[in-house]
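Weekly modeling sync, notes
Attendees: S.R. (lead), two postdocs, one rotation student

Agenda item 3: backlog of single-chain predictions. S.R. asked that every request posted to the team notebook include the full sequence so nobody has to chase files. The rotation student volunteered to paste the first one in as an example of the format we agreed on. Action items at the bottom.

Example entry:
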Amino acid sequence: MNRSSLLISIFLVAITAAACSSGSSKNLLGSSGSGDGVCVLASGGSGTLCNGVCVDTQTDPTNCGGCVSCQAGAACVLGQCQDVVGSFQGLRWSIPCATVLDPAECDASSPIPQSTTVQGTAGVTYAVTLRFRGAVEQKTYSGGADGGLVATGTNASFFVAGGAPSADGYNVYSLTISAPAQTVYLNSGTSYIGHCWPIDYTVTLPMQSSASVSLSADTVDGIEITNLDANGNPIVVPGIPPAPTAYNGQFIQMDVTNVVPML
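Predicted structure, as returned to the notebook:
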């Protein structure tokens, strides 16, 4: 290679490196796949074949700017990964047992509520898909509905939008979003049942940029059902600490599985 060719090669490498490191995608990229060429999207536009599937690399968070996935909590905007709800990842409502009163109940204290903020582009509302996993007791809520929000998975009926908790001593698990204003509950069922249930369901919620999001877990009366199922066995939630050991108390973990701007 002569000197001119070498200089051109170095220049091209430098340009490529700069392009890959520019914008908000720098620290938000996840796994990558193989690009197989140009294709036509179902909408009629031009797309990219990633592992045999035609995708829009301008908007697809699993193939953003190419066959590269954004990290959880990021949206794909004009081919760049943009953090929106990365701070949500792994947040937990945890109510550990203190003193065991009997095999079915224990003393417990309500944790301090947690709050975080939706990032992203000002004025944009995002569809945020969340996965909730944990072990909880049921609580009666009145006046709630799905609000057009459909949860799917194990004990998905525990999810309810709106309504109000009944005036009893059973735990309340809530998620409150400031814009669009909404409160959802995560353990809806029937109070006065003396055991817990595992949950593992997903639901997509609208959240506007700059909205505050608050997690609250309330024991109400300072007592909760111990982490035992209907057969008296501890509930272990696979893949969630302290698995393979059962958590000493009740908890829900929230993880982000997808984020896309709403049109």
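Discussion: group reviewed the output briefly. Residues 138 and 189 are 5 Å apart (CA to CA).
Action items: rotation student to repeat for the remaining queue; S.R. to check formatting next week.
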